[in-house]
Every structure is written in C-alpha cells, then in structure tokens.
Amino acid sequence: MSLYKYLKFGTVEAGTDEAGRGCLAGPVTAAAVILPEDFKLELLNDSKQLSEKTREKLRPMIEAQAISFSYTHLEPLIIDKINILNASIQAMQESIMKLTPIPEYIIVDGNRFKPLNNIPYSCIIKGDSKYMSIAAASVLAKTYRDDYMNQIHEEFPMYNWKKNKGYPTKEHREAIAKYGITKYHRLSFRLLPEQLKLDF
Q1: How many CB atoms lie within 10 A of CB 197?
Q2: Which one of 19, 75, 86, 117 has the lowest number of neighbouring Cβ atoms within 10 Å?
Q3: CA 38 → CA 19, 67, 127, 132, distances in Å?
Q4: Is 155 annotated as a binding residue?
Q5: Would you say residue 158 lies in a domain?
C-alpha cells in the first residue's frame, strides 16, 4: 500500500512517532519530521515492517530530503516519574518543538496526544503505515534508539541490549534475575514475571 503524503494539504505538517514504549530498559525515543511536497522514498514504511538494514539505509535519505527533523530520548527516571504514556507524549512534543519551522499541523501515530501550543493535531491509529511523515518519524525514532541501546550495551554486555534493544525477551529477563538491574532499567515496569522476584 502506498503512503499518503499529507493529511492537511497546504499546511506545514509534521508527523511524529515513538519507539521503545514496551521496553524494560533504555529511553523512550520520539522523532518528528516535516517533509517537502516532492518527497519520494520507495522503501519507506512503518519501521516495524522494515529490516534493520533497510531502516539504517533509509535514515540518511529521510534526513537529506526532510525540511526539518528531530528526535528526543527520555530517560527511565522520567518514565518512572510520569509513566510511559506521558513520557512518550512528552518525547514527541519535545521533538516537534525542535523543528524549524514549527509546524502548523501535527499528525501523531496512535490514539493519544496532548495539546501543544494550540497547534491542531490528529491522532491516527497505525499512522506509521498510512502517512509518509509518520513512517519517516518511526524510522528515525527506531534507529536513534537502537544506536543508543548499542552504545549502552558496551557498558552492560550481559543483558545483550545490542540484540534485544531492551525489550522483555526471555534472555533479558534471565539476565535481570541473574545480575539485577542497572541505571537504565525502568523500575516502574514489571521487570520479572511473578515467579522470579527481584531484590532492590
């Protein structure tokens, strides 16, 4: 299915999306993108539908063609303090505010957002597989978050974040049970199933 370019033609429209919402470790990362009218990128789709190699290939192409793009990492401390939904929305809002120009309309992947400086917006379920700017934001959010997880993997290789990216895989949970937690883990998340208890 080909993606739509804009929801509101004739306005400066930004698409935004986040990555890492369901992870046990690492930040939630959001990106926002404003694309030009002549934007073309055949391979572009929801980042979850693309291979890691394709996402890596797409990122510089998106950045080269975009009018403006930005991304934001929000750390586990903030996630634990305000909860993951609020942190996801805050990361998207911060990314939007870094764009130049500030958009006149925002399209958001998913069903939740909060008003931002009176800029009108629409929440679009599965927006990353419907609109180019949201798909582009999903690729940026995912690749910048993956880079971050690869980096902190070097610090704590026993959790294998290079592979699981902080998601709750069996291997990740076994490592938490064995080695405990790090400063990158989200304490407000259920890090281990009931049968495995964690001593803080």
Answers
A1: 8
A2: 117
A3: 27, 11, 20, 12
A4: no
A5: no
List pLDDT tens digits, range 28-65.
999 999 999 989 888 887 677 889 999 999 999 999 99
75 is in an annotated binding site: no
**Number of domains present in the structure of the chain:** 1
Does 18 belong to an annotated binding site? yes
Spatial separation of the C-alpha atoms in residues 35 and 14, rounded to whole Å: 7
Verdict on whether the full-model pTM lies above 0.85: yes
Residue 17 exposure: Cα atoms within 13 Å on the Cβ side: 33
- Which distant-in-sequence residues (6+ apart) come within 8 Å of 34 by Cβ? 12, 13, 14, 66, 67, 68, 69, 99, 101, 103, 133
CATH code, domain carrying 87: 3.30.420.10
